[in-house]
Amino acid sequence: MPLQGSHLQSPKLHIRSRKAPAPDGFVVHTSNLDSLSNTPFLIHWSHGKIQKILLAKDEPLSIANLKKGIASLFQFKILDDQINETDSSGHCTVSYTSTGANSFTKSKSSCLSSDLPYISNPELILSTNVESSRTGSYEMDEQNKYLKSVQFEERHTMLVAAKEDVGNKVEAHQSLVLKEQKNCEVMNGDSVEEIVDKLRNRDGITFTQESLLTEREVLLAEDAKTFQNIINEYRDNLKTKLLGTLSSAKVIARLISVGRIASKEDIVKTLGAKKNQKILHQLYDILGYVQTQASHDAVMKKLNLEDQKQQDLSERYLWALSMASQPNPHIISTLLTLYQKSSNIPPKVKETLVLTVAAMARRLSKLPDYKENFKVYHNVEEAMLHGLDVSKGDTKLVYLRALKNLKSKNSIPRLLKIVRKGTEKEQVFAWKALRSFEPSSWNNKIINAATTTFFQLDKKYDSSSRTIALDIILLANPSDKMLGNLIYFLISSCKSFEVQQYLVQSLKMISDKDEEFKRRVLNIIRSDIRLNNYDTLAQKGWSTALKRDFLQSSSSNGSLLTVQEIKGGIVKRGIVNIMMEKDGLSQEIFSLGIFSGGLDNIISSDGDPEESEESATAGIELTVLGTQIRPFVFFTGQGELMGHVWSGSASEDTTAYQALAMLHDHQEYLRLGAGFIAELDLKGAISFDLSGKIEISLWNRNAVSLVEKSAGIIILGLIRVDTSFVKSQVEFSVSLEPKLNLQTDIEFSSNVNLCMKLSQPDFMFRHNVFKIERIPGSKHRLRKVKYKKYTVPGKTYSLNKKNNEMCNEQRR
């Protein structure tokens, strides 16, 4: 059967209706399908393979796709086999399996459509899982000469990787049944081309040859808006006072989607509009995630990185660029050139620029097309390593932070060299960079250097270097011998009580989550009476390391990791990490780091004998979505500290960091075998606000500090099938508005009394599902909604026994 003619007779759209007779539940509804041009089409079929499909020239795309879906059903093999085929589902691996003498199944898997747009977050926990099933059953006549029936079903489910009970699904069913047999006209010819010519001359139809691949219909949206129009619509949601709330988070995805198709002129007008001047910071957040050539050119036209007055705006844009999961390689190259050639960029912006280029390059290396952009990554890597080699003083610290963002394995030898020969401050930064690598990158040289640093085998090290090195040793699955050496350190002559306390806390934290690790630790302790006693295991200091669950689901876990390294009653290095964990992997969503130095000399005369003196300093370091940003320094030097104390400038609630950011960014198009294309889109957004204050009274000799983290988080998922005659979609939204407070009360009138309170207030979790169906040209509009919500109870986290005792003592 070399050539077969087919014709769709009066195709109709059916919709579900309560008025429909059982059991189908469908009735005919008028639509544009009734009036679409519908001509015969030809299929060149040979031994079960569709060689060609010929469609009438200028056939409406909706009808053409539908015909390709039908034609694909006739591509099959009777014998068991596994081959590669191309049809209306894409380029697939196809398996044929016999189920009887005259029946078999056909299963498609790994269907690829490289010609259609695809965006996905490479970070596993922030990614999107799409699970597909395509299976059909075929029944032949008794002589296996012709088809009696085909039933084909496919299901595609889109799930949030971190929470697999949240998602949506699209199903497609095809049913082809032989009703009757008739004699048909047979047209003879020496070739397919000759037959096509005869049909064209007879029926006046000009045919064009096409593949079975369905084509995407690009339909003009009824509510298409410019970037300027969409900003006008949502301007109130972008007000600064609403950052950290759901009101601003819920508009981020929509704004970014429109921004990605906006022209340069449209964006320039938006940035220049007077009504938008109070929300410029938020607009630059959005455009950093849009990250098209048009958006970047528009930003560079309005934003001058060398202008002192535009420092805050410049940093907001650069921060957003550094956190986007889909970095634009051309923008990376442009920013690197700008950094290398411009000498007039303010120091803060220049540091942010370096950190941004490094972070963007790292994210670029995780994308599927990384090999095509390897030169861009290599240029950044080369620039960062050269900068580290030639820089001195605080500038070297900038490049160490940049290498933490870049996470290049080629930087490891340089970092280890600084661990051996750098200043105490440089060593701490080098260890932070090494700690940021995946544990699989920690080779023997890193483990040996960590061992040397922690046990101070060659010289004295800063306590922060030692505790970070300890983290690496413990997370690298230490041997029983190494674990024993660590535990015996508790009875050594070392007088760094806070380092010993940090070790005890770390062992407890890991043991709480890992039963095997706990067993190993207890075996070592119980084997020696010197270890298994109160004097060794009792809390000697205030340092804390703990991990607590705060949002659990069947597929993943949200946890809170806090580390407080104390010196002289003051937090020297404090970290509060919000982590997402799944299948043994963890993703750092947000990290707040507090650092200080030289303050113990002000409030206490009890210093650590192994620590060197340093000038008073304090500030915070933030790592957002794996990208470290420039630290915020509150003061340097005792004079600057006293200025804050006497003026009371730090006692007011002050915003340290605000941003709009994207957590999830996924878009793909799936070819459905029935001849339609489904769009899958999932966006996760966060609106974030970090603020704090500190009150210090030299008269009463006490201090109170409060750090507040507020966030509005929303995930929007959409599966949509759009044609010229029907539009159908199902979408979901998940939203929450969590807060986290860290309060520290210090009294130093006589003995130092330190009370830290880490608390999480109640917040609401909402999960909504919407089903929407429309028929263009008619009044038919179906909308179904399901709502679900529950309260996540608040809690105050117990840090350690001694901290609890200090807090209780303050209450008396």
TrEMBL record:
Q: Please name the Pfam families in this protein's record.
A: MTP_lip_bd, Vitellogenin_N
Keywords, comma-separated and alphabetical: Endoplasmic reticulum, Signal, Transport
Q: Which PROSITE patterns match?
A: VITELLOGENIN
Query: SMART domains this protein is in?
Result: LPD_N (SM00638)
- Domain named Vitellogenin: which ranges? 1-575
Can you list the GO cellular component terms from the UniProt entry? Answer: basolateral plasma membrane; endoplasmic reticulum; Golgi apparatus
InterPro entries given in the database record: Lipid_transp_b-sht_shell (IPR015819), Lipovitellin_superhlx_dom (IPR011030), MTP_lip-bd (IPR045811), MTTP (IPR039988), Vitellinogen_b-sht_N (IPR015816), Vitellogenin_N (IPR001747)
Q: Which GO terms describe its molecular function?
A: lipid binding; phospholipid transporter activity
Give the UniProt record's GO annotations in the biological process aspect: lipoprotein metabolic process
Localization recorded for this chain is:
Endoplasmic reticulum
- Kindly provide the name given to this protein in its UniProt entry: Vitellogenin domain-containing protein
